[in-house]
């Protein structure tokens, strides 16, 4: 029925508007994420991946040498420095942030691609349904007009029948009076 088709059309319009809105939001989010990714990439390129830390001999070792009375060894140990390479924690944080932004950007791009393909299909289906509703409304209007004309003709015929019967009755009475 026409009412069901109209409800379906209203739901399809709502779904289409929602998809278009999600597409706009997705594109905005994608632009933002691409900017964030570029910023993180710039920071990563400016940040050293490995840092070199200089450390001295632990105080316990120096203290043990002092306790043993080895003052010469203690002075030598105090001047010894070790260099240790470690992954820069700032670089690790930026790399983790880059991975998260890249994952999110990939998800948003997938949604945009999906919606970009889906929206034209939804729009065509909506237009097809709107044409079917219009055709059904025109048929309904044509049927209603035909029914109205039939009712008008029926009323005219009924009125004519009543008038003709009354005329026949009156003519029959006049003939009966004339006899």
Overview of this protein structure:
- It is a single chain.
- The protein has helices at residues 2-46, 59-67, 71-79, 89-178; strands at 50-56, 81-87.
- The two termini are 65 Å apart.
- It has a two-stranded antiparallel sheet with strand order 1-2.
- The protein is mostly helical and 179 residues long.
- Helices cover 85% and strands 8% of the residues.
- It is rod-shaped, with a radius of gyration of 46 Å.
- The mean pLDDT is 89.
- α1 (2-46) packs antiparallel against α4.
- The chain contains four helices and two strands; from the N terminus they run αβααβα.
Could you outline the blueprint of secondary structure elements for this entry?
Elements: H1 2-46, E1 50-56, H2 59-67, H3 71-79, E2 81-87, H4 89-178
Antiparallel strand pairs: 1-2
Helix pairs in contact: 1-4, 2-3
Given the C-alpha coordinates, what overall shape results?
A: rod-shaped
Kindly report the average pLDDT value: 89
Q: Count every beta strand, where a strand is a DSSP E run of 2 or more residues.
A: 2
Pick out the low-confidence regions: none
Main β-sheet description:
2 strands, antiparallel
Relative helix content? over 70%
Q: How do the strands of the widest beta sheet line up side by side?
A: 1-2
Q: Please, what is the oligomeric state?
A: single chain
Radius of gyration: 46 Å
SSE arrangement, N to C: HEHHEH
**Portion in beta strands:** 5-15%
How would you concisely characterize the structure shown here?
This protein is mainly α. The protein is 85% helix and 8% strand. The longest helix has 90 residues, at 89-178.
């Amino acid at each position: 029925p026409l009412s069901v088709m109209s409800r379906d059309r209203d739901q399809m319009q709502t779904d289409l508007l929602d998809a278009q809105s999600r597409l706009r939001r997705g594109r905005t989010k994608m632009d933002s994420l691409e900017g964030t990714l570029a910023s993180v990439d710039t920071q990563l390129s400016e940040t050293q991946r490995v840092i070199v830390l200089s450390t001295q001999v632990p105080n316990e070792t120096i203290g043990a040498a002092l306790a043993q009375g080895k003052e010469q060894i203690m002075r030598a140990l105090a001047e010894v420095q070790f260099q240790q390479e470690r992954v820069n924690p700032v670089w690790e944080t930026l790399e983790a942030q880059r991975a998260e932004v890249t994952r999110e950007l990939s998800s948003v791009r997938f949604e945009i691609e999906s919606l970009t393909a889906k929206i034209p299909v939804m729009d065509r289906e909506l237009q097809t349904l709107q044409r079917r509703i219009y055709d059904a409304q025109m048929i309904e209007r044509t049927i209603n007009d035909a029914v109205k004309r039939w009712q008008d003709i029926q009323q005219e015929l009924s009125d004519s029948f009543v008038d003709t019967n009354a005329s026949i009755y009156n003519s029959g009475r006049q003939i009966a009076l004339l006899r």
